[in-house]
Sequence to fold (376 residues):
Amino acid sequence: MANSWRRERWDSLRLLTPNWQTRLPGCRYDGVDPDGFMTMAEVIEFVSRYAAVTSAPVRTRTTVVSVRQIDGGYHITTDRGDLRCRTVVLASGACNQPSVPALRAEVPSSIESLSPFDYHNPGQLPQGGVLIVGASATGVQLADEIHRSGRRVTLSVGEHVRLPRTYRGRDVLWWMDASGVWNQRYDEIDDLPRARKLPSPQLVGTPARSTLDLNTLSAAGVELVGRLSAVREGRALFSGGLRNLFALADLKMERLLDTFDEWAVACAREDFSPPERFEPTRVPASSRLGLDLRNGEIRSIVWATGFRPDYSWLDVPVLDHKGNLRHDGGIVDAPGLYAIGLPVLRRRKSTFIHGAEDDAKDVVAHLEAFLARGAR
Ligand SMILES: Cc1cc2nc3c(=O)[nH]c(=O)nc-3n(C[C@H](O)[C@H](O)[C@H](O)COP(=O)(O)OP(=O)(O)OC[C@H]3O[C@@H](n4cnc5c(N)ncnc54)[C@H](O)[C@@H]3O)c2cc1C
Fold:
């Protein structure tokens, strides 16, 4: 139960979505801190409570090792017996494996290499400098935590999504919800493949509700370098162009804030503070384009380069050449096969906990109609 939250997260992680937003059908946060952010222990308790509230027939400690098509449905093999069913919903998650670039293999063996699944807390890292590759939610959070532990941190920054924690007196994710941005449907998005690949926002859930962006990190002493492009003869090589990268992220944030402001004007509410604009991301006077990985400056690398699903157990030919599931809004390219919980599955909010409810209603409506057709 709540396996990914129990086993695949670092010790200090809290949700970046506020408590009031953490809801599943018939189950919502009812504690004293609706604007706070759940710790992992609280998320595990929340998911376990949901299982109890729904009385769903959950089979814990059971791994599906194969799903294959048979006449009239699917044959499921698990490590605890087999099942046959007419329909299957793939709810196995979007983040089953860290997505680490192949250039990891070129890193000298003297450097300790960790994925976010291996990382628990700074205490496990060898003393000395740490290179963190990737500056989305995971990368900025780990850069902050590891820097605070007294280690020198270099953060390699690629494409990223900048967001302030609060805007006009409210949580930025309140604005995403209220303005309808998070509800935008997959069939209304111009470049859906791109939207599905968008990195997670630079956000952290802390009791102080503070913003954790590149300005915060560089002011604290974290060194920013460009995207890691190669590791050659023991040197990590970084792309230049931080200025452009930062300008793009700033511009996209400004556009999003404009959308919030337009919505606020259109709904004629007067209970918001005035519009805010934030300092552009500061470009370092000079940023290193290379780092010697053999001179002892860097002792460990954390690959905060994203996550991907694992379908190694799915013996149905529904993956494209990149290993992505072929589906239209969760209706997979095989009769009776469905998916839920993937990026922008049916809405921008699809991979978030509170995003499951609306998607599930749509997917289940299709599934019911499929079963009803078969029953006639
Ligand atoms: C570091 C991190 C932080 C996040 N923070 C937030 C946040 O703050 N707020 C938020 O809303 N979302 C957050 N998310 C996204 C979050 O993962 C999803 O919101 C939520 O977990 C999706 O639920 P899910 O059930 O679709 O997938 P998961 O939680 O990944 O659950 C899938 C389950 O399927 C199981 N499974 C996979 N394969 C098999 C198999 N073959 N047989 C049996 N079981 C299998 C997995 O073990 C897992 O238990 C975060 C994700 C990550 C990686």
